[in-house]
């Protein structure tokens, strides 16, 4: 039987009595606590350790923001609020979730094309910084500020001419729906200042899911060079610069974690070389999946085991409606296997090749294709790792009338 490798299981997961443990609690106990499968479990230990390691590697001058679109679960937001320096939201809905989690409005920035007037109004009245995506958005924000009698806080999202090499999703370089082309930015910033709005600086986001430190370093160096150039053209220093993010996590066989020490050292050198015009500028990065992705595990129960043409299929009560990315249908070209395990036989020797599928009536619903696993039967629990980002929030939960999975922070 052909076998396909699965991705690397993230560090920090151990076994207790032969069972996967998350935050010191076994998978079956977690399912019992939640009352049912499928279930997303997010580990607060993992989140805390991740942010601490990142801070240890990055220059002190760099603030760390959480870009929350990968995981807006309220308990995760509340926990992250105690760990990071700011939140980046990308819709009015995310803004409300951040506020409900207790995030201070002055620590929130709001990016995203197509902000509606009511979203701009809400953000401006709260004192949230808008990462302006176009000249038109700036004019609407200025007009809304005048109507409300509140000075809007406006940063400009720059569409850089470069992108993040080797990144999963390109968000800069060439024609894009995001940000304002770099050469038009000085004119727009001058317009913001003349209009009496508070200019908050730049937001420059060039891509996502890069594992190569060299690629991230090159992007950060290019970003800082662009900031220097724009600052000179404007003749005023940006109070704040969001350098973007793009740090990826290993999902697939052969993937290696980002060398954050190398990135931090290079960024420290780049900060040291900045001109005096940027001495008082605050810098941040905005990370989503890097902070939360590996902290999450998706647990689903096997409801059927069947053989077709000699191949074993383990059919679960979960599927792509919670795990679109693991099924290979969220921005991937070639389907490869995420890290998976039989949670109640964690660490047991693999005995057979089996495909783990979901309960949806579509052949796309595959959680793992021909993986080498311990023998599993009806009632056993499957764990899909790297489920902390773009799982629950980026999957079509209502497909086939299935509904959402349970979620829990431990
Ligand atoms: C999606 C997005 C992020 C987060 O991306 P991750 O890959 O989860 O780190 C950050 N900033 C912007 C502008 C985004 O669109």
How is this fold's topology laid out?
Layout (H helix, E strand, L loop, with lengths): L13 E3 L2 E4 L2 E2 H8 L4 E4 L1 H14 L4 E6 L6 H8 L4 E4 L2 H9 L7 E3 L6 H10 L2 E4 L2 H14 L4 E7 L9 E2 L9 E2 L3 H10 L3 E7 L2 E2 L4 H22 L5 E3 L17 H13 L9 E6 L1 H4 L3 E13 L2 E6 L23 E3 L9 E6 L8 E8 L7 E4 L21 E4 L1
Parallel strand pairs: 4-22, 5-6, 5-15, 6-7, 7-8, 8-9, 9-11, 9-12, 12-14, 14-15, 17-19
Antiparallel strand pairs: 1-2, 2-3, 4-16, 10-13, 16-17, 16-21, 18-21, 19-20
Molecular structure report:
- The structure is a single chain.
- The protein has about 400 residues and is an alpha/beta fold.
- It folds into 2 domains: about 15-40 and about 295-410, Lyase, Ornithine Decarboxylase, Chain A, domain 1 (Beta Barrel); about 70-285, Alanine racemase (TIM Barrel).
- It has 10 helices and 22 strands.
- The chain has helices at about 25-35, 45-55, 75-80, 90-100, 115-125, 135-150, 185-195, 215-235, 260-270, 290; strands at about 15, 20, 25, 40, 60-65, 85-90, 110, 130, 155-160, 170, 180, 200-205, 205-210, 240, 280-285, 295-310, 310-315, 340, 350-355, 365-375, 380-385, 405-410.
- Strands 4, 16, 17, 18, 19, 20, 21 and 22 form an 8-stranded mixed β-sheet that branches.
- Helix 5 packs across helix 6 (about 135-150), helix 7 (about 185-195) crosses helix 8 and helix 8 runs parallel beside helix 9 (about 260-270).
- The longest helix has 22 residues, at about 215-235.
- It starts with 13 loop residues before the first strand and ends with a strand.
- Pyridoxal-5'-phosphate binds near residues 67 and 111.
- Pyridoxal-5'-phosphate binds near residues 90, 209, 290 and 389.
